[in-house]
Amino acid sequence: MSGRTRKYSAGEIGRLRIVEDFLPAPDELVPREDNVKVTLSLSRTSVEFFKREAGKAKVPYQRMVRALVDSYARQNEKRLTVREPGKRSAGKGEGA
User: Fold this and answer.
1) How many domains does the chain have?
2) Helix (H) or strand (E) holding 81
3) Cα torsion through 41, 45, 50, 55, rounded to 10
4) CA-to-CA distance for 30 and 61, rounded, in angstroms?
5) Considering only CA atoms, which of 73, 76, 10, 86 is closest in space to residue 36?
6) Is 46 a member of any domain?
7) 65 within domain boundaries
8) H/E element holding 44?
9) Residue 26 domain-assigned?
10) What is the reported pTM?
11) Do residues 57 and 64 lie in contact, with contact meaning Cβ atoms separated by under 8 Å?
């Protein structure tokens, strides 16, 4: 037996049943996305904010920025696909 394995010897364990493995494979837990490296200039204030907040969450700040941009893109993609074809939303200088 390995150092982490212990033999149970305090009597019967009781009625056991085998359950089906319902957990995803480790490589399915966090799907890899096709990332593209870009060069982006951000304000010092923004970078300091993300570094500070990422430090609290113990994650790299670049991951936090990427998650924000991904979330923004998903939300706006939904809005664009829901809008009627040929219709534009009112923007600056346009009537509402």
Assistant:
1) 1
2) helix 61-82
3) 130
4) 18
5) 73
6) yes
7) yes
8) helix 44-57
9) no
10) 0.52
11) yes
